[in-house]
Amino acid sequence: MMTSLIPSSECRVSSVLQRNVKEVGKQFMFDNNPSTCWNSDQGSPQWVAFKWTEKVIPISILATFQGGFCGGRDTAIQVWNDDTEKWAELCPWYLEDSGSEQQLLLPAGVLTSRLRLFFPSSTDFFGRIIMYKLEVSGSKS
Hints:
Protein name: Nuclear receptor 2C2-associated protein
Structural class: mainly beta
Number of domains: 1
Largest sheet: 9 strands, antiparallel
Helix content: under 10%
Oligomer: single chain
Mean pLDDT: 95
InterPro entries: Galactose-bd-like_sf (IPR008979)
CATH class: Mainly Beta
Keywords: Receptor
């Protein structure tokens, strides 16, 4: 059964604009309020990472970005490789530079305890990412 994997995860982000977590922190990607957001600081790369205490099977990612402030064509979904202790690319995510909701279906059968959205660059001149909504759906192993 597919369900939200967010509540059972620990989420970390690469940065927060001017360290202002009270107004633009990571928690605002998950509050179901379309007027709040996570806003990264400037610079590349940026990322959003999830960690679970047990392995999960992620199936899809749903996100809404601020047009002009999303990852470029080289955005990647990565999973943690326990053997090499490094992030490995699972698949690319070709994002549209728009404020519309975007969904990515992940390759079938992925079993992982860590997943990361990796933005090597941004469509923003300063390398910022602004995300209003983020959902990772799947099932527990």
